[in-house]
Amino acid sequence: MRQSMKFSIKLRRLLMGECRAYLNLTILSLFVLLSACATPMEPALTAKPPVKSEIERMYAKVLDNVHKMYLDEFPVDRLAISSLSGLKKLEPATSIKRDLGRISLLVNDTVIGNVAEPDHNNADDWAKAMDTLIGAIRNSSTKFATFDIEKIYKVTIDSILSKLDGYTRYAGKVAGRRNRETREGFGGIGVGVLLHSDGVRIERVTPNLPADRAGILPGDIVTVVDGTSLRGRSLQENVRLLRGPLGKPVQVTVQRPKRTVPLVLTLSRARIIATTVFYEAREHVAYFRITGFNQDTTSELRTEVEKALQIQDGPLTSLILDLRGNPGGLLDQAVSVADLFLHEGRISTTNGRHPDSLQLFDASQAKIAQGLPIVVLVNGASASASEVLAAALQDQRRAIVVGSSSFGKGTVQTVIRLPNDGELILTWARLLSPSGNALHKIGIIPTLCTSNAESAKSVLDRSLAASATHHQIATANLDSREAMTKRCPWQPHKGDDIDYAVAKRILEKPELYQAALRLSMPAAGS
Fold first, then answer.
1. What pLDDT, in 10s, does the model give residues 332-349?
2. Residue 299, Cβ neighbours under 10 Å: how many?
3. Which residues of the chain have pLDDT under 70?
4. Domain range for residue 241?
5. 214 and 354 both lie in a single domain
6. Cα distance between residue 395 and residue 185, in whole Å
7. Domain shared by 319 and 403, yes or no
8. Cβ atoms within 10 Å, residue 394
9. What CA–CA distances, in Å, run from 524 to 72, 362, 439, 477, 519?
10. Active-site residue set
11. What is the predicted pLDDT for the residue at 466?
């Protein structure tokens, strides 16, 4: 309190002109105090920067990120002109003309609008020019005036991205929201539903989530949500009504078979993250099917493996990770899953044009299932993050990979949130296996290939006898690896699950597992 009083006295003296007594203050403090001694003046008015429209902000973000982050460099002007050319999809008579330093937008050869051509790599100025030209055509064309802006975003941004790889894509605000729900979860009540004539039928209730706690049962029919009838709506519409902001109450009317009076229940939505790990105890083998990689995959798998170690019927001898049909997901989750099983060494490498895309992922220390043999199952629908996991365990000789050649999606996409709440999913890096091999268009070559196999025995006889052929992978160049990939195509088996049968057979016989490990020598980088 005493210090505060002294400070107040000093401040009053300074404001009265007694600045000279404090010459021992720092230069910065002296400047501030002398300013206080000056005659009060009206604050200078500074012009606020003009508020950019959503359209301008949208194109500025897309153009800038594609120009700076995509695997290959494209000049901004080329991207912008390509984008404007996309308007032709809505009006075939539309054309773009560049002449004498100006950009003109024409319909039926009549100039609708024109602007001065910006510097070729200035994303902000090109976005402003695009906003002006799109505004001009929307003002002059009755047809364009009726188009929702999302439709214009779709055709123009898709026109930019059509010049790039097939994995770079635009998701509008609705699709963007669905993507985020897949990655991060959504507000829901914890049920699986199917369409019913009166609304939706509850097929599955997740334990310990709002629906379960409220007593909702499989077979119940939800007919009304927050006063809105579900009858006659699509399944997607009904699911959207059940979902909403976290913690926000939702009232549902539930018709239960053999009950004449419907139940009216109020539930508080919780975060729902899709389950991606499914565990089955199969004698002494723990079988894990991993369907994707979202933000909970690693923690789910760790929990399930720890559960298997505790409750498996008899001593747990081995693990099977089934990645067949797994399209991928979050790269960091694939890396952290691999890190669960690896004691040391490289997990993956990414590289691209942007400095931030250069990343090395190394194992920290094995945390679970140390010493237990592992088999990984893959097929032609195993892609991206699932290939990262399989490659890491194969190259580090921590697992045997069984099945057919994987999809070969060896690039990394970064997700950029756009001003309209949509997303730009942009390819910005390539994936390399621990041994330095590119995964793109090649994928994972299984240690034990089951293509065209009639039985597990035939696979083992064929593969283990061909050790010299497998050893060639260690010194193969890129062309040879591509040829090897084609030798093991994905051909879905009829009847018995030969992939699993091969895995079970080698896990039952340590000598077979060790022989297969010797065939898993990592291919040399090329």
1. 999 999 999 999 999 999
2. 13
3. 1-50, 312-314, 464-485, 492-495, 521-526
4. 186-272
5. no
6. 33
7. yes
8. 26
9. 26, 18, 13, 8, 14
10. 384, 395, 409
11. 54
